[in-house]
Every structure is written in structure tokens, then in C-alpha cells.
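Quick one: structure for this chain?
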Amino acid sequence: MDIRAKINMENKKKSALKNLDAHRAFLKEKGLKNDEIKKNVIVRKLKAEVRKADFRLTRIADQEKQDLDLAQAKAEKLASGKNPKEESKKEAKVEVQGKKGEKEKSEKKTKPEGKKDKK
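Got it. Here's what it folds into:
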């Protein structure tokens, strides 16, 4: 995943948390109870944004881990000196030649000559 996506998600999460804290403080100053604050539409929306950002950040971290594992696997294959592409091509040729019940293609029948072109 792109590093910019990770940075953008972190920034969105920080701004949502900041706005959430500010809105909660505003509602407390207004004299609302915790139950009423939890039910507030804006508070719920900001919490949802934080959850979305957390989910996306975990997905980005998983993708980075997968990319790292893939790079390590490629490096190990190169270090072992085996070229798996050549081996797989040889195996594929053997399978194609060894198929049972494969009928040989017959030559195409020639079409009978019909009427000649009119002049």
C-alpha cells in the first residue's frame, strides 16, 4: 500500500479524535449527561470515523507485512539458485504429451467443388 495512504489515515484519525474530544467537552459544558452524550449524533459519527480509520490502518499494516513476506520469499528463492519457472514449463510439457484419450486432429476435409463463378 502507498505510504501516503497510511499517513492520510493517521491524520484523519487524529483529527476525528480531536473533534470528538472537543465536541464531548462542549456537550459537558452544556450540561448533558454521559448517556445523552453517547447518543449524540455527532459523537456517534466521529466515533465511526475513528473506527474506520483504525480498520484501514490495520489493513494497511497487514498489506505491508504481506509485501515484506513476499519480498523475503523471493530473496530466498534467488539465494537457493533454483529457477521455478523452468521446472514448471518442463512439467507442463510432460502433462500435455501424456494426456490419455486425446484424439489426434484429423486433416480438414476439402470442400467439394460447386458451381463455378458466373461471368
